[in-house]
Amino acid sequence: MYKLIAIDIDGTLLKNDKTISSETFTSIQNARNKGVKIVLATGRPIQGLEKYSKQLGLTTNQDYGVSCSGALIHRLGTREVLFRSTLTYEDFQLLYNFSKRLGITLNALTDSLILTPSLNLTTQIESFLSNIPMKIVDFDTLPKTTIINRIVYINENEAFINHLHNVIKKINLSYTPVSEKNGNDNLSLSKDKLSKKIHENFTVLKPSSNTLEILSKDVNKGSSISFLAEILGIKQEEVIAIGDSGNDIDMIKYAGLGIAMGNAFPEIKEASDYITYTNEEDGVAHVIDKFILGEGEKEVI
C-alpha cells in the first residue's frame, strides 16, 4: 500500500493556467481521507508552494513541503525547517563567475528574495508565481553573509524570450520590458556546458530548456523525499513520486512507483515506472484513482 505521494507543482499538479483542476483536487482529498500523506515538492521557494498547499488543506505541522528542488523541507503549519542545505559565499562566487564566462544571467534565491544582477523575464515570472520579491543587486558586492538556497542559470536567447512572452500572457503578468541582453544565442544551455569543478561540487538540474538549477552537492527532491519518508517511518516502496521536468528525476527514481506526466521531458518518461496523462488531462488525478483508490483503469498511452 502506498503511504506517501510526492507531487511536483508546475507542469504536474497545476494546469498551464496555474490552477488545480476540480478532478485533481477531489482525488487528492480522497487519498488524504485514506490516510495517504501528500507532499508538494517544487523548485519554487516555500512562498510559492503555500498558495496551493492551503488550497489542498495541507496546513498543519503534520503536513510537509519540499521547496527549492530539495534544498529545504518545512512543516507547513509553522514553516519550521526540518532540513536545509545552502550554498556558501565561495560557491556563489564560483557560480557567478562561470555564468559570466557563458554570457548568461542568473538568479539567487534567499529565504525572502530572488536576487539577480540584471532585469530579466525569467526572474520576473518566478517572482510573480512564487509570491517572493525580486531585487536587482550588484553581485560583485553581495554581502558574504547572504544565505543562498539555490542558484538558477538563465539563458534568455531569442527563442526562449518568445516562449517567456507566451507564459506571461497565460498568467496575465504585468512585467517590466527588458532591453539589455541576458542570453547567448550561440549557446545551448545544457549540463555538459558546465565545468568539471561545478559537476564535482554541486547538484545540477535542468527544469526547463534554457535554465539550470544549481544546489549543494547530493541535494535534490529525491534526497529530501527520502529524508522525509524516513522521519515518517514510510518505506521507499510505499512512496509514489509524480513529476515532469529535470528537477523531478531523482524523486522519480527514488520512489517505489515513479510516475512521469504525459507532458514530461523524454528523460523523465524513460526513468519512470508509469506514464500518466498530461497536466491538462488531470494526470495526477488518474494516478491517485488508479493506484490509491482502485479506479481509473483506462489505458494511458
UniProtKB/TrEMBL annotation:
A Pfam match: Hydrolase_3
InterPro entries named among the record's database cross-references: Cof, HAD-like_sf, HAD-SF_hydro_IIB, HAD_sf
A single GO cellular-component term on record: cytosol
PANTHER family: HAD SUPERFAMILY HYDROLASE-LIKE, TYPE 3, PHOSPHOSERINE PHOSPHATASE
Lineage: Bacteria, Bacillati, Bacillota, Clostridia, Eubacteriales
Name used for this protein in its record: Cof-type HAD-IIB family hydrolase
Domain of life per record: Bacteria
Signal sequence, start to end: none
Keywords: Hydrolase
A GO term for molecular function: phosphatase activity
CDD domains reported in the protein's UniProt record: HAD_Pase
Keyword set includes tRNA processing: no
